[in-house]
Amino acid sequence: MFATGACGLVFEYILSTVSTYILGNSIEQFSITIALMLLMMGVAGYVQKFMSDRYLIEKFIFLETFLALLGGYAPIAIYASFGFVPDHFMVINYFFVMAIGFLIGFEIPLVLRINEKYSETLGTNIAGVVGPDYIGSFAGAIVWTFFLLKTFPLTEISFLVGGTNFFIAAITFMYFMKFGLVKYRVVCVILIVVSAALLAFGYNNNRDWNLNLEQKLYDSKIVFSKTTKYQRLVLTYDAPLNDYRFFINGNLQFSSVDEAIYHEHLVHPAFALVQNPERVLILGGGDGLALREVLKHPQVQNVLLVDLDPDMVKVCSTNPILTRLNNHAFEGAKVIAKASDAVSGVGWTRVFQDTGKVRPSGEPETQRIASVEIMNVDADRFLDQAPGQWDIVIIDFPDPSSVELAKLYSREFYRKLASAAAPGAMVVVQATSPYHARESYLCIRRTLESAGWRTLPYHDNVPSFGDWGWIMAWKNRDEGEIRKRIAATETFGVDTAYLTPDAFRAALSFGKGSLATSETRINTLMEPALLTYYLDESWKAE
């Protein structure tokens, strides 16, 4: 029961995670998946009263082997349904969720009935079954979180968990065989042998199947993929277009052909509006592309990048394709994994670049760019104890497609941000699309203003995404002075692939009615209005 409890919970997590990778919104997918499984467990608890007490051992062996096969092949089948029959994906997905939940719901009643013959009291029977089942569920959650999810692909985890159910069935058969309590021995042997063969076949081939089926989710060839503790990272390549695309949980983060438009807008306008910006804070931006742009500015002395996922930073600092795209921005940076609730740095690592000149000694001459520190910690928690103030704060979070992301666009978050901003600082927030996600964009602006920030919205066309928007924010500065500096800007002082001062000034212009709305809700922790807006936007249905 300890093992079945662990396996049952991990199966719930596997199916919830598969749904999240395909459909997004982890809170919704986990909630619906686990709720449906609990519903079917309840249905099974009711249905079992119609089951006779004959051949209970055989029924338990059949249950565990069938659960092993169904659970083992479920992720592969769900992936395949999305790739080959997307119109029927939800039906197939929820079939596996409900079927596995139904089978799990039979485990405790069956074991209670079997043990009833050997336990002196009902209390002893329940204690020997329910207690280990719940404790096993806890153990399964720990193993899933800290080992399985970080070590194996989902399609392999399912076969490992299914193998555990199979092992329980085999041990049960061998144990009760000794006492002559298994009546249909030949049937059970055939069932165990066939199940072992099918599980072994699936386990040996799951990685190839996984790669082929996941490829169905993307238009271009997958050249790299990795599952971290927090997310699924995928890099694709379109050879004719020479286009690398980076996805997180199936959502496009950037395209190499036009990411410069996005990241140059995110970084350089703020530098033109701050007098001598020496300290820069980047929240998010684990791909290093915003950091690449920041390091172009020679006046920058210190940069702190805060990104929750250490594996995201590791991938983007070691993968040769991504390091080429971010111009080795992480090279030499100090990486700090947060080990406790305390938020503190352990010193800065200097970053140098080749000047193209040669010293008299024959060694290449380098110049110091900046000291860069990478901190792996939740940005919201970081702001609770932010150690210092910054002249420029760049917020490069994914879109608010889930509750955990929407909190990073909340009024509470923006209020905390004030303590991290130095006098005269500028803050830049990536704010989704003012065209495709108009109410989301305007909600972010309202939320910033409700937290005491003054705002300046701007937008531009990023071909891979369409019309995209950013919002610049500040405190204790006059908007007229800000606009005068924008009008007087003749150069950003660094090399850019796209952005010019004139292009930025054009980005400040919106069409008639584009920034008008009758909506008044702001985004807070307890009322994530932004998530509602984002999920209801028209582009989600396109």
Automatic annotation (TrEMBL):
<comment type="subunit">
    <text>Homodimer or homotetramer.</text>
</comment>
<feature type="transmembrane region" description="Helical">
    <location>
        <begin position="184"/>
        <end position="203"/>
    </location>
</feature>
<dbReference type="GO" id="GO:0010487">
    <property type="term" value="F:thermospermine synthase activity"/>
</dbReference>
<feature type="transmembrane region" description="Helical">
    <location>
        <begin position="124"/>
        <end position="147"/>
    </location>
</feature>
<feature type="transmembrane region" description="Helical">
    <location>
        <begin position="30"/>
        <end position="48"/>
    </location>
</feature>
<feature type="binding site">
    <location>
        <begin position="378"/>
        <end position="379"/>
    </location>
    <ligand>
        <name>S-methyl-5'-thioadenosine</name>
    </ligand>
</feature>
<dbReference type="InterPro" id="IPR030373">
    <property type="entry name" value="PABS_CS"/>
</dbReference>
<dbReference type="GO" id="GO:0005886">
    <property type="term" value="C:plasma membrane"/>
</dbReference>
<keyword id="KW-0812">Transmembrane</keyword>
<keyword id="KW-0472">Membrane</keyword>
<dbReference type="GO" id="GO:0004766">
    <property type="term" value="F:spermidine synthase activity"/>
</dbReference>
<feature type="active site" description="Proton acceptor">
    <location>
        <position position="396"/>
    </location>
</feature>
<dbReference type="InterPro" id="IPR029063">
    <property type="entry name" value="SAM-dependent_MTases_sf"/>
</dbReference>
<dbReference type="GO" id="GO:0008295">
    <property type="term" value="P:spermidine biosynthetic process"/>
</dbReference>
<feature type="binding site">
    <location>
        <position position="231"/>
    </location>
    <ligand>
        <name>S-methyl-5'-thioadenosine</name>
    </ligand>
</feature>
<keyword id="KW-0745">Spermidine biosynthesis</keyword>
<feature type="binding site">
    <location>
        <position position="287"/>
    </location>
    <ligand>
        <name>spermidine</name>
    </ligand>
</feature>
<feature type="domain" description="PABS">
    <location>
        <begin position="207"/>
        <end position="475"/>
    </location>
</feature>
<feature type="binding site">
    <location>
        <position position="263"/>
    </location>
    <ligand>
        <name>spermidine</name>
    </ligand>
</feature>
<feature type="binding site">
    <location>
        <position position="307"/>
    </location>
    <ligand>
        <name>S-methyl-5'-thioadenosine</name>
    </ligand>
</feature>
<keyword id="KW-1133">Transmembrane helix</keyword>
<feature type="transmembrane region" description="Helical">
    <location>
        <begin position="91"/>
        <end position="112"/>
    </location>
</feature>
<dbReference type="InterPro" id="IPR001045">
    <property type="entry name" value="Spermi_synthase"/>
</dbReference>
<dbReference type="InterPro" id="IPR030374">
    <property type="entry name" value="PABS"/>
</dbReference>
<comment type="pathway">
    <text>Amine and polyamine biosynthesis; spermidine biosynthesis; spermidine from putrescine: step 1/1.</text>
</comment>
<feature type="transmembrane region" description="Helical">
    <location>
        <begin position="60"/>
        <end position="85"/>
    </location>
</feature>
<keyword id="KW-1003">Cell membrane</keyword>
<comment type="function">
    <text>Catalyzes the irreversible transfer of a propylamine group from the amino donor S-adenosylmethioninamine (decarboxy-AdoMet) to putrescine (1,4-diaminobutane) to yield spermidine.</text>
</comment>
<dbReference type="Pfam" id="PF01564">
    <property type="entry name" value="Spermine_synth"/>
</dbReference>
<keyword id="KW-0620">Polyamine biosynthesis</keyword>
<protein>
    <recommendedName>
        <fullName>Polyamine aminopropyltransferase</fullName>
        <ecNumber>2.5.1.16</ecNumber>
    </recommendedName>
</protein>
<comment type="similarity">
    <text>Belongs to the spermidine/spermine synthase family.</text>
</comment>
<keyword id="KW-0808">Transferase</keyword>
<feature type="transmembrane region" description="Helical">
    <location>
        <begin position="159"/>
        <end position="177"/>
    </location>
</feature>
